[in-house]
Design a protein that fits this description.
- Strands 2, 6, 7, 8, 9, 10, 11, 12, 13 and 14 form a ten-stranded mixed sheet that branches. Strands 1-15-16 form a three-stranded antiparallel sheet, with helices on one face. It has a three-stranded antiparallel sheet with strand order 3-5-4, with no helix packed on it.
- The radius of gyration is 26 Å and the shape is globular.
- Helix 2 runs antiparallel to helix 9 and helix 3 crosses helix 15.
- It is built from 17 helices and 16 strands.
- It is about 40% helix and about 20% strand.
């Protein structure tokens, strides 16, 4: 059988010609510059403040942009370094607006001539080591949930993200913050990782999603064996501290992991000095006592739940009802606040035959009412709105915040952690969050409305991975696309909007 040759071959170019496959990534570098991301890193993270070599802002910005470009491991920095065209762009952005003295200080950080534009994988791994705290690791007790305290450098990344929120608030004021707390499992093959409740080695960070902004307000990186409902009140308090000025009202949503009486009491009694009473809707445990309360509800008190499809309301099989339920943990104290509990029932498609109730096992709570058996769910809340409206509002959390976890782990680099050291992985996770929020700002503030719900694959195809030639002309850096490229108008308009945002910041 004859071998057929493919009608092409690969050759290395004889010299660099300023070609890049990341022409649109310059927009993100420009937006990061306008919002002062590098300055924020310099102010809050001082791993390399008084040492030679790569600066903090160079390493962090490289990892943020690497996420957006599609890289998912430290070694991908070498692929990026080979993109000579974008390296030119990055060098220009780094040196833009620096005085002659500041440029000389940058040059003096290197004993030999600097040959790379982005840090090498080896240098990046050494840098990430600073975020790991061995003293905290020695405090671990086998078999117990433990969250290592963040060292000063990890706390610095938290403050950088808070500065991102402040920038977003200056551009578009938002007075309400609906916060969704949710944990996600990141499976890994790292030997040092611990087993999660699903039986696989994992880490389980918990994120606080700001629904109105479509951004991650706060996060806490955790081992896989730490329950999702472990010390959530502390996370909420930290998240509230990082809300920017101008936010007046806070609401909270969570699944059953947030069903902790200290958290509910904190929100209901208005213990937060800045925001006072926080309205919430949180999934509650369907205990035997809750089931008894649901059985006492009269049949005419179960109300249908509708869904909207193409502008029409369609009745579903689900129904809701207020239940007179007071959990034991609250009932033993006279000073404990009372909450509103809502039960949601949905008939099982397969009827249970008499005498077979104990034989059938389900992964969700069930309850027999009359001749039918139902799935049973519960919500605890302090909101006095219509029950159906409350159910739909609570379920909005399942849409965007959980979708964001898919973006973090699949579209960005959150799903592939670089190290067996907890602190290094925590820093990697935070760099991914900064990339996530930078992309959210790009979609919400810079691009047109049609891009607001686009996933990364569409953004990379039409914006980031745009082939271009980099030309130096009269002290200007020109990113030249091919003639009639369909992304040209989009990129040009986006650049104009970023410049307008820069004027707002300068003013």
């Amino acid at each position: 059988m004859s071998q057929k040759a493919l009608p092409f071959k690969f050759e290395e170019g004889k010299k660099e010609r300023g070609i890049t496959s990341l022409g649109g990534l310059a927009l993100y570098a420009g937006l990061a510059y306008i919002m002062g991301l590098s300055k924020s890193v310099r102010d809050h993270i001082r791993v390399r403040q008084h040492t030679q070599g790569w600066t903090d802002s160079q390493v962090i910005l490289s990892l943020v942009l690497l996420n957006l470009a599609g890289g998912d491991c430290v070694e991908d920095l070498n692929v990026w370094e080979a993109d000579e065209g974008f390296c030119r762009i990055l060098r220009r952005v780094e040196l833009h607006d620096l005085s002659r003295r500041e440029r000389r200080e940058q040059e003096r950080r290197w004993r030999k001539a600097k040959r790379r534009t982005v840090p090498s994988p080896t240098a990046t791994f050494r840098y990430l080591e600073a975020f790991h705290d061995e003293e905290q690791e020695r405090k671990r007790v086998v078999g117990r949930a433990f969250i290592p305290a963040a060292n000063e450098y990890l706390r610095g990344l938290v403050h950088v993200n808070a500065d991102v929120m402040d920038f977003s608030q200056r551009q578009k004021r938002e007075e309400t913050a609906t916060l969704d707390m949710d944990a996600t499992l990141v499976e890994t093959m790292k030997e040092e990782a611990l087993y999660s409740y699903k039986g696989s080695k994992s880490y389980q960070p918990i994120n606080v999603w700001w629904a109105e902004r479509q951004m991650v307000l706060h996060a806490e990186f955790r081992d896989g064996n730490v329950p999702a409902g472990y010390k959530n009140l502390g996370i909420l308090k930290e998240a509230l501290e990082h809300l920017p000025e101008g936010v007046k009202n806070v609401r909270l949503r969570s699944d059953n992991a947030g069903y902790q009486h200290d958290l509910l009491k904190y929100c209901e009694t208005g213990r937060n000095k800045r925001f006072g009473r926080i309205e919430f809707a949180i999934g509650c445990d369907v205990t035997d006592e809750f089931k008894v309360a649901a059985l006492l509800v009269e049949e005419d008190q179960w109300h249908p739940i509708y869904k909207t499809r193409e502008g029409k309301k369609i009745k579903t099989e689900q129904e809701w009802a207020d239940v007179g339920f007071v959990p034991n943990a609250i009932g033993h104290s006279r000073n404990s606040p009372e909450y509103r509990y809502i039960a949601i029932r949905e008939p099982l498609e397969q009827r249970v035959l008499p005498g077979m109730e104990q034989e059938m096992l389900f992964s969700f709570p069930t309850l027999s009412m009359g001749e039918r058996r139902y799935k049973l769910f519960g919500i605890v809340t302090n909101r006095e709105i219509d029950g159906e409206e409350l159910v739909h509002w609570h379920r909005e959390r399942c849409g965007k915040s959980e979708e964001a976890h898919g973006v973090m782990k699949n579209d960005l680099a959150g799903g592939k952690l670089p190290s067996g050291s907890f602190g290094e992985n925590a820093a990697w996770w935070w760099c991914m969050i900064l990339a996530f929020n930078l992309n959210a700002l790009m979609k919400n503030l810079v691009l047109q409305r049609e891009w607001k719900n686009k996933r990364m694959k569409a953004i990379r195809l039409k914006i980031i991975h745009v082939p271009a030639k980099i030309i130096n002309h009269s002290r200007e850096l020109i990113i030249q696309l091919t003639k009639s490229h369909p992304s040209f108008g989009l990129l040009k308009d986006a650049r104009s909007r970023i410049l307008e945002m820069g004027c707002v910041e300068a003013g």
